[in-house]
Amino acid sequence: MEFKDLCSFFEEIRQTKTPNDKRKLIRERFKKIRDDKSRSSSFDFYQVLRLFVPNFDRERGSFNMKEAKMSRVLTKLLDLPPGHDRNVLSKSHLMAGQATDFGDVVYSVIRKYLRSYKNQVTVDEINKFLDDLTKRQNEQEAEQAMMQMFQKMPAENIRWIIRIILKDLKLGVSSNTILNCYHTDGAAYYATNNSLNKVCEVLADENVKLNELEIEIFEPFRPMLSKRIENSNFKKEFPENKEFYVEEKFDGERFQLHMKEENFMYFSRNGFNYTDNLGKNYETGIFTPKLRGLLEPRIKKLILDGELMLWDTKYGNFGCKGMALDVKKLNDTGRYQPCFCVFDIIMFNDRVLTNQPLKERREILATVFRETEQLW
User: Fold this and answer.
1) CATH code for residues 3-165
2) 364, pLDDT greater than 50
3) CB 133 within 8 A of CB 145
4) Where is the ATP-dependent DNA ligase family profile domain (predicted)?
5) Would the pLDDT of 293 be above 50?
């Protein structure tokens, strides 16, 4: 992919008026790049994305290159004589942080002196240049590298290189939004690892959802949590003609139950492992033995989401946190026993269900257990 084509795309985004139109444009162009069958087999979207969001590119080191240094490099490159243009270029760094875009100021000068080049550089060459720029030992080497690259490029492309080095393309759209245009879970996944390379590798298929990738048997995952709705937004969130579910709020501890071929693991909301307490199989722990015979035999793999509660075996009702009892460390012969209130099913055999409607998940959940009434 030629860098000039990417620069044209940058300019198109910048000229697009509304944020919604910008997002639509980026999504459509990203999809077109993904679906381009004529592209080289060695094409790597990561090389494109790191130029879109240079401030998120943790794999690349610091450029240590600010406006003043680039002004000096360009003055040498153009061999500018004393006068207006040299003054504008040498003082343009003073405008950094103001409304005026440094890239535009530089472009207004250098376009008068640089001819249009027919030999265009590729995106890969630009990335190699930027990688090398971070490894320069001193300012002189950095300036020399920039001069060599700028001599190969027209003024309009240099403007975008400058913005990339300054890590602000001024596209009028946030870096998180750009990642979400690459994949709907792009920003969320980047937040977990700070790696653009991983975002491109793991989310290469735009149809794969992050929650599916995160869900693995015997690995804790981030549970879905409720969010507070303001009274003023209630009717908007819950219109009269829309069906919704109301879940009872249990006063226990959020837990995940994982089972594979009669081996169990239990994880708290924060991912702590309490399997040793609750039981890794039907023979151990204070809770797993109570599940013997309750799961349907056809179930070989299972992840359940629910609330670990206190159960009062004397009166047949729930306890609460205020009773100063730790549900994870009960005596297996005491009056209070652990009880797991399941409200969602995450995995059923080899099928991850997180993208299925709650109604369907509840229907599947109803087939997991053999219904029985038992007091311990």
Assistant:
1) 1.10.3260.10
2) yes
3) yes
4) 331-376
5) yes
CATH number of 215-376: 3.30.470.30
* Residues contacting 106, CB < 8 A, separation 6+: 70, 71, 74, 89, 92, 158, 159, 162
Write the pLDDT tens digit of every residue in 154-204: 888 888 998 999 898 999 999 999 999 999 999 988 877 778 998 999 898
Identify the bridge partners of residue 2 per DSSP, sorted by sequence position. 122
pTM above 0.90, yes or no: no
> In this structure, what are the phi and psi dihedrals at residue 122, rounded to the nearest 5 degrees?
-90, 170
- For 183, left (φ over 0), alpha (ψ -120 to 50), or beta? beta
Token digits for 267?
Answer: 């994880």
Give the 3-state DSSP-derived string for the chain, with helices as H, strands as E and coil as C.
CEHHHHHHHHHHHHHCCCHHHHHHHHHHHHHHHHHCCCCCCCCCHHHHHHHHCHHHCCCCCCCCCCHHHHHHHHHHHHCCCCCHHHHHHHHHHHHCCCCCCHHHHHHHHHCCCCCCCCCCCEHHHHHHHHHHHHCCCCHHHHHHHHHHHHCCCCHHHHHHHHHHHCCCCCCCCCHHHHHHHHCCCHHHHHHHHCCHHHHHHHCCCCCCCHHHHHCECCECCCCCCCCCCCHHHHHHHCCCCCCCCCCCCCCCEEEEEEEECCEEEEEECCCCECHHHHCCCCCCCCCHHHHCCCECCCCCEEEEEEEEEEEECCCCEECCHHHCCCHHHCCCCCCEEEEEEEEEEEEECCEECCCCCHHHHHHHHCCCECCCCCCC
* Confidence grade of residue 262 (pLDDT, cut at 50, 70, 90): very high
